[in-house]
Write a structure and sequence with these properties.
Elements: H1 6-28, E1 34-38, E2 46-50, E3 59-60, E4 66-70, H2 72-75, E5 88-89, E6 104-108, H3 111-114, E7 124-125, E8 130-131, E9 150-151, E10 155-157, H4 173-177, H5 180-183, H6 190-204, H7 208-225, H8 229-233, H9 238-247, H10 250-253, H11 261-267, E11 269-270, E12 274-278, E13 286-290, E14 299-308, E15 316-320, E16 333-338, E17 346-347, E18 354-357, E19 366-367, E20 374-377, E21 406-412, E22 423-424, H12 428-440, H13 454-460, H14 469-472, E23 481-485, E24 507-516, E25 522-529, E26 545-552, E27 556-560, E28 577-578
Parallel strand pairs: 17-28, 19-22
Antiparallel strand pairs: 1-2, 1-11, 3-10, 4-6, 5-6, 7-10, 8-9, 12-13, 14-18, 14-21, 15-16, 20-21, 23-24, 23-27, 24-25, 25-26
Helix pairs in contact: 6-7, 6-9
Amino acid sequence: MLRWNKQGSIWLALVAILVNFISSHTCSAIQCNVFLAESTIPNAGLGIFSGVELNPGDPVGNGDVCIPIFNVEKHHEEPSDAINDYVWAGEVMGMKLEAAPDLIEANCLGLDSALNCNLALINVARAKPKYDDAGLHRSHDPAAGSITPYHNGTTRATIKVPIGGELFKHYGDEWFKGRPDLFGESFPLTEDFASAEEIINDAFSFGEETARSILEEVIFPMQRIWGSRVMNAIPKTIDEASIAFREGIEMVYQPNATRSINWLQEHGKCVDHIIPKQSTIEGAGRGAFAKRGLPKGTIITGSPLHHIPMKDNFIPIFRTLRTDANSDEAPRREIAGQQLLLNYCFGHSESTLLLCPYGAGIGYINHNQTRTNVKVVWPDDGLMSHDETWLRKQPEEMIEFSGAHLALDYVATRDIAAGEELFLDYGDDWEEAWNGHATNWKSERIWSSSYASAKRWNEKVDGIPLRTAEETSTDPYPANLHVRCHSELDEDDWGSFEEWPASEYGYPCEIKERKKDTKGQDIYSVRLVTEKYDRWDTEFESPQVLDIDGVPRSAIRFFDAPFTTDLHLRGAFRLPIGIPEAIMPAEWKNVPFSVYSDP
């Protein structure tokens, strides 16, 4: 019989140590499909790596949110540029008409902010978010306008990716052309790698021995004396050229862009523990849920932080007040709103500093003080670009720096079951402000109960004949909607119009006539006005007015008129997540009172 004496106590202590060891190592060994770690590209910061083998079409991650950022340079003389290198053009993310003709940028959290670009090894396609208001309506939901409707941007593999392979997304050649000081004039672009592969294939079409001679006697010497984009894209050795011929030029670069799973588990952070679904909190929109069981102490995700030292140089959105045409006074401005990004950042009532995380899934984590199961902490110094010396900097000292210098870990405060919703405590100030907003909130307009977004309206009128211009003169459509016709109508050979991608906005059009075709389907005669497709459209010279007959119903859709969506509601809730006092550095407290107030 075992006697619980002093020796037994020692055994108990050993068992406890063993349990703690197993528990800590179990946390680090939880299944993970996506890692955030140091990029294989020198000086590129962090990158995204696959924890599983990927085939073309496979999804990567669990989808994330995109936050529209309205033209900061228009609203501020000295705008903060903290996130310039981390945004996508709004027009390619479905946001072009939010504030047209002003430019919109899309701050897409998760993979879209962390993925690097290697033009020789593009292996995932850009994710385009879906538009969904999460069931919120401005007539009865205080949260309307406080969350982004652009979500579920899911990245997919375009080629086979090995376990541990870094993922690369195409930024667009213009991104590299616009930075000649960093990349030079001979940096190979997308078409240059395609041309290089064609040259290699042509050389090997004569046989391996002849190809070797062509490379060694002609191409390699040319590389050394003629540094063109194409020459710089051609592999530098016979072995690399052979790989490019047999497997494709991207495979030349794959070995150096791959890390071992052991390395990723030790040096990276899993960013695959969160999946988005409708929140269990009524009226909160979407929420973050545990993809798998997460033991207490698990780092659910890690996120680098954009720093905005002076929030007033980024967050306010102004409108110019009308003045007397004969007045010599300069036009006055007033604050009309605040950037939605504010709601996704961390801040403090005694600081001008905003910290905006861009980790995977974190944009879905809601506030709940009674059900909190996640907390944020500073990671170890040196991990995830976190520099603890920044915890001792004044916000004013951060202005001249760009890139990520701070990070947060999101840690499970108790065991979390698979499928359980994740909650943070945003802080007492946030709780009080939200309760006050919800209590005093009123809908934006008297007619808001009849408001319908373009998405809802398109669903409502699907299959219903559209009104002509003459009919709308007495029975108009809602003022917040615009009719637009598919841009391919100006081409000779029409395709199918059943699917409108996020970057298809069509052209403004007017329905002149409605009639039936030989199959009894409604077809329309329309007048459309062409416009510049995007900011890079160099072929557009001036608008053209086109009259087109026989247009199918599927080629006509409703779009939200600029400045009419919930994002522009003047009473929409805006407040950052509170930086917990337990981790808030005293050096960051540079104002003696709250700087966060409703416009």
